[in-house]
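User: Fold this, then the next.

Assistant: Folding the first:
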Amino acid sequence: MNNTPNRKKRISAACCFIALLAVEILIGKYGGGFVRDYLGDVLVIPLLYCFVRVFYVRPAPWLPAAVGGLGILAEVIQYLNFCDRFGIDRGSLLGILLGSVADWRDVICYAMGTVLIYSAEHFSRKQQRHCRKEGT
């Protein structure tokens, strides 16, 4: 069984993950205003998607929605004051990952990130079909 296509997909997803992680770190360290408040939240969904794609390469049209749903779940957890209710220190790694302040604008950013993933997947599939049709 030839596993080369899956390996290429995993490597591609890992490279995208690393690039997006670097951008997110730079935004966190140097970004301000719109870039930090909104662009970082939009890009976190594709970042998580690429991470999942390193391990799960099979076609999954539901996966972008699932990853976007994780972002929305994080906002719900913040809205419900999960960290305070369960005594999780906001400065701990888990507290930072869960976040502490719910904002409906974050949900819009996560939705935009999900649309970015769907768009990228659509254009990727379209390009693959075109290449197969052309024989390249």
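Now the next one, as you asked:
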Amino acid sequence: MGLLRASALLILLAGVAVPVGVGGIGEIVPGPVPAEVLAVLDGDTLVVRARIWLGQDVETRIRLDGIDAPELKGKCESERRMAVEARDRVAWLAAGGRVILRNIQYGKYAGRVVARVETPDGRDFSDALLSAGLARAYDGRRREPWCGVAPASN
């Protein structure tokens, strides 16, 4: 009987820790959700404060949807150099401090959410990085290495 209760408790806790369905992992918030940029962590991750309801703000990490940018702690100098350029481009786009979040959904790692991020005038961060050669299209599968890739000259 004790084993049965313990199993039921674990199942209940799993349901609380990893929600599904309404309010859960499969949910997408289409937006637009206005947000304030608090920090640019790297070429594909921001920290924002989003107004989700009257008087209700949420601070969270946002991973830019659809791209993979080089890592600041990359395996080679060229990757690290491109990572700095990507981060600086995101910081430039976010310089006004205000962004719009769209298609917001749970990410797979580190408590982040994934979203399309735009400037108030409609410039998409992911598209800007792709156009500048500072990111690659990414669909959540295995990432390709950045070493050996020449930095963008924009």
